[in-house]
Amino acid sequence: MSAPAPEPVKTPWRDVTLVALVASVDAVLRLGRLHPDEVFQHLEPAMLKAYGAGITAWEWQVGLRNWAIPGLFAGLLKLGDAIGLHDVQARRALLELPQLLLHAGMLGAVWRLANRRVGPRAAWWSVVLVGFSAPLVWFAGRTLGESLSTAFLVWGLERLDARSAPFDSAQGERTAAFLGGVLLGGAEVARYGSAAVIVPALLVLAAQRRWKDLGLATAGGALVALLLGLLDKLTWGATLASPRFGGFWHSLLEYLDFNVLSGRAAQQFGAEPWWFYAGSLFVAPFAVVGLARWWKDASARSWLLVAPALAYLVAISATPHKEPRFAYPAVVLLVVAGTPAFAAWALVVFQRGFGWKGLFASASVAGAAAFFFVPTPYDVQRPEQFQFTVRASRGGHGLVVMNEGVWGSGGTFYLGAGKVFCTCDFPRDPCFSQGAARDPRFDRGIYTLDTGNQERNDDTKRAFEALGFHLAAEATNTWYFERGAPTP
User: Fold this and answer.
1) Which residues contact 381 (CB under 8 A, 6 or more apart)?
2) Taking every pair of C-alpha atoms in the chain, what is the biggest distance, in angstroms?
3) Which strand (E) or helix (H) includes residue 421?
4) What is the pLDDT of residues 92-108, one digit of tens each?
5) Cα gap 196→73, rounded to integer Å
6) How many angstroms separate the CA atoms of 222 and 235, rounded?
7) Mean pLDDT throughout 210-226?
8) Per residue in 80-91, is it b (16+ CB within 10 Å) or e — as a string?
9) Pairing between strand 478-483 and 469-475?
C-alpha cells in the first residue's frame, strides 16, 4: 500500500498581507512619486477615462500604452463616486487595493519558494526581509509599470518553479505552469519591457527539458496576449486614424518601434553608459550573502529567478536609454532568489551562538536597513509637494504650482477633477500673472524654493501676497499658499 501524498502547505496569507501593507501605507500616506510615469501613465489616463479631464502624455496620443490598468483604475474611481468616496487621498487608497492584493500575492510566492527550499521558519523570515527591504517598500505600492510588472514576474516564476511542491495530483502541477504563464502575461501587459525577463525564463524551461510546463506556460501567456490584442483593437483601433495592424497589439508595436527598433528613446531622453546600473544593485546586502550561499547549496537554488534577472540586466545595460527604475525588476528577482538561503544560514548561525558569523549576518541586515536613510536612486521624490496638493484639493478650487513643470507635479489626479490647475516658473509667467491674477478660482499655490537664490524666493513670496495669498505652511524646500485671510 503506497503512502498518502503529503498535504500542500498553506501560504500564511494573513502574515503576508500585513507585511505587504507597509508599502501600500507608505504610498498612500507619504505620497510623492518615484517618477512622473507614476502619475501620468496610469493615474492621469484613468482621470481622463472616468471624468474626461486629465493631462495627456505623448504616449497616450500615439497609443504607445494599453488601457488595461488605467481602465481598471477608472472603473474604481467611478465606484468610489458611487459609494460617496470623493476625497483625493481616499481615492488613492481605493486604487491601492488591487496593488495591495498583487503585492501580497508576490510575497505569498516568496513564502512558497522559500518554504520549498529551506522550510517554513526561514520562509517566514524571507518574507520579512524581502517585504521590508527599502526598494520594495518604496516601489511596491506605487502605480508604476515596474512596480506592477515585478510583482507579476515573481509570482509567475514561482508558479513555474512549483513542480517541487507537494500536489494532490498531477493536475495541480499543470495548473501551476499554466497560471505561471498567465501571470507572466500580466507582467508583460503592465510593462512591455518585462519581455526581457519572460523570454529567458521560458528558455530556462527549455534548457531543463520541461516541455510540458513550457507548453502550458506559453499557452497561458498566449491567452493574455490575445486579450491584450483585443483590448488594443477595441481602444486604439477605435480612436486612432490609422492604427497598426488595425489596432491589434497597436500599443505593443508602437513600444517596440520607439524603444527597440528606431532608437528614438535614446534620442529623445538621452543615453547612458553600459555600467549605469551598477550602483543600483547592492541595496540589500543580505541578499548578496544569500546568493553566495545559493551558489554553494543546490537545494536552495532556482535558476528560474536568477538567469532571467541576469539576462534582463544585460538587456537593459545594452539599451542606450537608461533610468534607475529600470533596474528594479532585476533587483527584486535577485533579492527573492538570494534571501531564502541567507535566512536559513542566519537562523543556524544564531542558534549556535552569536560569534563573528552572527555579527556578519546582523551587519548584512543592518546594511539593508541603512538604505532607508542613505540616498539611493530609488528614493521617493516630492512627498511634501504632493501632500500640499492633496491639502489644496480639500477646500481649494484651483492651484498654481510654481518653479515646477507639469511632469513634476501631481497632475489633476491629486488635485481632483473640476478644479483649475497650472504650472509656471516665475510670477511673470501667464499662469500666474494672468491666470491667478484674474481668476479667483486660483486660491491655492505651491512654490518649490530655489535653494541657491533667497532673493528670488522673497520676491516670489511678495508676488503671492500681492494677489491676496498668505503663506499657510512650509516644508523642506516647499511653500504652500492659500488665498484669503489666514484662519485664526
Assistant:
1) 32, 33, 34
2) 91
3) strand 420-424
4) 999 999 999 999 999 99
5) 26
6) 20
7) 95
8) beeeeeeebbeb
9) antiparallel
Look up the pTM and report it: 0.91
Answer whether 181's CB lies under 8 Å from 304's CB.
no
Instruction: Answer positive or negative: Cα dihedral of 242, 245, 249, 253.
Output: negative
pLDDT at 181 over 80: yes
Nearest alpha carbon to residue 233 among 221, 219, 247: 247
Is the CB of residue 399 less than 8 Å from the CB of residue 392?
yes
Angle at alpha carbon of residue 353, lines to 348 and 359, rounded to 5° = 85
Sign of torsion over alpha carbons 126, 129, 131, 134: negative
- How far apart CA 80 and CA 77 sit, in angstroms, is 5
Comparing 261 with 392, which gets the higher pLDDT? Answer: 392
CA distance 108 to 460: 51
> What is the C-alpha to C-alpha distance for residues 481 and 461, in angstroms, rounded to an integer?
9
Distances (CA, A) of 102 to 99, 148, 315: 5, 8, 26
* Angle at 92 (CA atoms; ends 90, 94), nearest 5 degrees: 70
The DSSP annotation for 47-95 comes to HHHHHS-----THHHHT-S-SHHHHHHHHHHHHHHHTT---HHHHHHHH
Between CA 226 and CA 222 the distance in angstroms is 6
* Residues in Cβ contact with 459 at an 8 Å cutoff, skipping those fewer than 6 apart: 427
Pairwise CA distance, residues 269 & 321, whole Å = 7
Cα separation, 389 vs 387, whole angstroms: 5
CB 139 within 8 A of CB 147: yes
Residue 330, CA atoms < 13 Å, CB-side half-sphere: 25
330 and 312 Cβ atoms separated by less than 8 Å: yes
470's grid cell = 498668505
Residue 343 CB contacts under 8 Å (≥ 6 apart), including other chains: 114, 118, 122, 123, 125, 126, 129, 290
- CA 35: distance to chain centroid? 10
What values do phi and psi take at 198, rounded to 5? -70, -45
CA distance 461 to 432: 13
* pLDDT of residue 298 exceeding 70: no
- Asked if 57 contacts 40 with a C-beta cutoff of 8 angstroms, the reply is yes
- Which single residue is written with the C-alpha cell 501580497? 104
Q: pLDDT for 397-451, tens place per residue?
A: 999 999 988 898 999 999 988 899 999 999 999 999 998 899 999 999 999 999 8
Residue identified by cell 478650487 is 397
Neighbours of 476 (CB within 10 A): 8
CA 475 vs. chain centroid, Å, equals 26
* 53's grid cell: 479631464
